Structures are given as C-alpha cells and as structure tokens.
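sry for the spam today, last one i promise. struct tokens for design, 242 residues
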C-alpha cells in the first residue's frame, strides 16, 4: 500500500468473470502496491465476488455478463469515483504477476508517461501458445500500421493509466477490442505511451473456432476503430481550416 503522502493515489481495478479460484490471491498481492483494489465482477456464476471481498477488495457487480469492454468502462468509472490519480488494471485469473506492478507504475509516477502497457513481447514469451502469439502479432501490426507511435503488445490487459486518459477517454467497445480503443484514443490525445516487460502464465489450451473467431473479430475492430478515428480527425482538421 502507498505509504508516501506525496505519492499520487493509486487504484487497482480488476475486471473478472468466474475467477473464484484465483481472485483472492490476486487481490491480496495487489494490495501491497496500491491504495485501493476494486474488482469488477462481470456477471460471474461462481463465488468470485465473495472471494474478492474476503481478500479486501471493493466489488462492483454487473449482475449479468456484459463483456470485457463494459468491465473496463466500469474500471475507468470506479477510478474517477474513488478520486484516483493513477489507475492500474490487471486480470483476475492469475495470468498477470502483481509483483510486477511497480515496474508498470514507475513511468507514470515519474511523470514520464500517460499510459504504460505491460508487454509480453519485450522479453521471453516462449510460454505463450503459438496461435495466441500469432494473433496478437497480427492485431498489433494492424494497430501500428502507418503510425508513428508503435507498441509491441496492443492486446495486453496489464496497464497503468494517468488521469489524462481514464478521466477523459470515452469508451464504446463492448468486447476485447476495447484494448485497441483505449490505445487509439490515447494516441489521438497525444498521450505518451510506454511499455514495460511483463511475464504471463498460461493455462494449456489448443486452437479452436472460438479463438479464431475472437482473433478475427478484434482484427476487424482495429481497422474499424482506426478508420473511424481518422475520419473524425480529418473532419476536425477541415472544420478548423474553413
């Protein structure tokens, strides 16, 4: 927990769905590095909410499963409601290591960045399933295409946001494409985006139609979001010059 009076208030928000077996440990470890832990339970059908509360988290319950994008939106709203100056987001399924939180927060606390991405591609990622690695690389390539601000992991859910981002960025995506929406929105605001290496634990899995469909859906969303934002910027530029 934050001990320095001069350090900004840090709120960690954890979006999760059916993570009863891991959320307690994630909350307990995360509490060491932040001022408050908030769990956004996106309609879990197990005891995720109870386990999170027992570990000391404030729980926001959606009641029904609304999707990852809606959970991230709730994370942003919770950070504002709790007067956060820095928002940390990580997954509740145990994939992310809370002990890496200080490295994620450092660039923002030093005033060097507005958004920090925990990247799985800055170090050894040999444990990542190959199909997942391929999909993330394709999505990241599409996000970086033609942009001066490039990242190595556009789909990472382990991030830290400064107030400039989470207080002013509107979110409309309901699925995993919200990861791209936040990056594109931050880039449009001229935010300084940095990355920090993270490790990631994966449950053994195989490629299936659901995974393929998910990857294709996010890839198409990247193109849609970028096209939409480019049109908005072109219209704004045209209005200013007229």
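last one done:
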């Amino acid at each position: 927990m934050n001990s320095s009076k001069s350090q900004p208030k840090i709120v960690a928000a954890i979006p999760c769905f059916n993570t009863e077996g891991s959320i307690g440990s994630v909350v307990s470890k995360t509490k060491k590095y932040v001022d408050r832990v908030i769990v956004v339970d996106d309609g879990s059908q197990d005891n995720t909410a109870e386990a999170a509360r027992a570990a000391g988290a404030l729980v926001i319950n959606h009641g029904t499963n609304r999707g990852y994008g809606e959970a991230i939106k709730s994370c942003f709203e919770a950070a504002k409601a709790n007067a956060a100056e820095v928002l940390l987001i990580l997954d509740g399924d145990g994939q992310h290591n809370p002990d890496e939180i200080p490295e994620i927060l450092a660039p923002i606390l030093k005033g060097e960045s507005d958004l920090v991405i925990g990247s799985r591609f800055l170090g050894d990622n040999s444990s990542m399933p190959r199909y997942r690695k391929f999909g993330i690389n394709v999505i990241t390539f599409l996000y970086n295409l033609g942009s001066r601000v490039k990242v190595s992991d556009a789909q990472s859910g382990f991030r830290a946001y400064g107030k400039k981002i989470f207080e002013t960025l509107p979110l409309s995506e309901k699925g995993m494409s919200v990861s791209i929406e936040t990056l594109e929105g931050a880039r449009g605001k001229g935010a300084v985006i940095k990355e920090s290496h993270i490790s990631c634990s994966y449950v053994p899995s195989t490629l299936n139609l659901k995974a393929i469909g998910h990857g294709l859906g996010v890839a198409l969303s990247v193109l849609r979001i970028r096209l939409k934002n480019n049109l908005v910027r072109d219209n704004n530029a045209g209005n200013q010059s007229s």
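The CA atoms of residues 13 and 89 lie 5 Å apart. ok im logging off now
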